[in-house]
Amino acid sequence: MSSAPADTTVPTKPWLSLGGREFHSRLILGIEQYTDATLVSEVLRAAGADVFITTFDLEQTRPSLLMSDLDETVGLDDYVWIGTTSFARSREDALLTARRLRESYGIHIMKLDVRPSDNFPHNAQTVTAAAELVAEGFDVLPFILPDPDTAAALEQAGCAAIRLMASPVASARGVVDERAVRETMAAVSVPVILEGGLGTPAQVVRAMELGADAVLVNTAIAQAPQPAVLAASMRHAVLAGRLAVDQGLVGPLAP
Amino acid sequence: MSSAPADTTVPTKPWLSLGGREFHSRLILGIEQYTDATLVSEVLRAAGADVFITTFDLEQTRPSLLMSDLDETVGLDDYVWIGTTSFARSREDALLTARRLRESYGIHIMKLDVRPSDNFPHNAQTVTAAAELVAEGFDVLPFILPDPDTAAALEQAGCAAIRLMASPVASARGVVDERAVRETMAAVSVPVILEGGLGTPAQVVRAMELGADAVLVNTAIAQAPQPAVLAASMRHAVLAGRLAVDQGLVGPLAP
Questions:
Q1: How far apart are CA B177 and CA B166, in angstroms?
Q2: Burial of residue B176, with CB atoms counted within 10 A of its CB: 0-12 exposed, 13-18 middle, 19 or more buried
Q3: Residue ranges of the domains in chain B?
Q4: What is the pLDDT of residues A136-190, one digit of tens each?
Q5: Residue numbers in B near A12 (CB within 8 A)
């Protein structure tokens, strides 16, 4: 009885559409931590991802893959391209990175991170940077600490979706403040992505149960012994959570 | 990029073999709560189950499906048959149910429940009943509250696997005492099934992360608006948890 899961598991409608590109998979992967293009390809396929995220490291302090290598190995045309400013320490660096990504690759969908202290986004600087990027014609996906007012301001500024920090990046603590996340979700009508510190599939399912439209997982997969296996695990976790939400099943909030 | 999950997700080795029958799926469903044979068939297929559980209600106080209807609709030959004593309130009733299931259907694998107060197993009575059933030639899967000594006694008595209560049956509280579960698991070398109160996929993944060889889910699926959809959710949850365990990924224990 080990046949494929029922058809009920295949998402039919995209949860986000931007400039004619549709987002079906609710699992988004960061790939900044990889140095092997073949591994990136395996991980994206095992995750069922339909998004490819790339960036510039303005200070060139971190290893990065060549786009030419990736294109040959990963088949980049199959993916929606998104830029990220995840290495940016300030509003200025974030804007610079976004503009350079558009100039170089024509990328207009921007995962906006302004993280002065690496693991925490700066909400106020993010709002300012988001407004500027929207004015410049970008589709902006900003990353913030859960806060209803900040999220509402970002939606007001024209952001396409809001990314909320579950717990500090790479902490593997899951959704630490479930109430703050729920209240922030309730403050906006655009899709919400939960991200940061999602280290185990149970934490990913819980994020989906809380009502996330999608999750972004990075370190847990990149640092697994076999990243493609953990990517498959996270894919199942996202499907498990989403199907439960479809059934109206949400566990009680943690205190 | 919505192709089927990677091959990594298909279990290759059975987690339990009894009398020549192999258990591959790590998701076991109770079906005592169903009154529609078609629904049972859909749920078992969506769950990827390879076990079919049946019982007698000695007092005939609950509705039950006719085996003839089930055989026609479900295709019972595809499944490993297990009997359950889940309606038994005492050691005597449990023994009577088990014997009658073997006489009627030739079932020799017995899910042994002795639950005087419905939602809690009685550890001491379960040990006594398990020893008697083993002596009579049954393969016994006893259900107990997490307790290392009781689990060790059951393994000593020859039980094939141990089922541990995660939280009270139908409570949807997940694994309440993670430390007790881990310590009990460490006390035995036979497979351990977590069961009872697993109400959401996040709770199921967590049970798998803690090292369960399999989980048994009943009420959450039976009472969902569309049981087959929630069965698919739980199937994904089990796969997500198992793949993470294969990667050595276990979150820190709850306090």
A1: 8
A2: middle
A3: 7-245
A4: 999 999 999 999 999 999 999 999 999 999 999 888 999 999 999 999 999 999 9
A5: none
Give CATH superfamily name and number for B7-245.
Aldolase class I (3.20.20.70)
Interface test with B, best of A22, A236, A246 (most B CBs within 10 A): A236
Mark whether A13 is an active-site residue. no
Say whether residue B229 is in contact with chain A using an 8 A CB cutoff: yes
Is A21 an 8 Å CB contact of chain B?
A: no
pLDDT 10s digits, B141-154: 999 999 999 999 99
Residues B126-146: tens digit of each pLDDT: 999 999 999 999 999 999 999
A74 C-beta neighbours (distance < 10 Å), count: 22
Residue of B nearest to A252 (CA): B173
What are the DSSP calls for B4-58, one per residue? PPPGGGS--S-SEEETTEEE--SEEE--TT---HHHHHHHHHHHT--EEEE---T
- Tell whether B48 is within 8 A of chain A (Cβ): yes
Burial class, A122, CB count within 10 angstroms (exposed 0-12 / middle 13-18 / buried 19+): buried
Instruction: Pick the closest to residue A29 from A223, A216, A219, A237 (CA basis).
Output: A216
Tell the CATH superfamily of the A26-246 domain: Aldolase class I (3.20.20.70)
Partner residue opposite B236 with nearest CB, options A44, A231, A239: A239
Instruction: Please determine, for residue A204, whether its predicted confidence score (pLDDT) is greater than 50.
Output: yes
Measured in Å, how far apart are chain B's first and last C-alpha atoms?
40
* Nearest CB neighbour to B237, from listed A235, A240, A248: A240
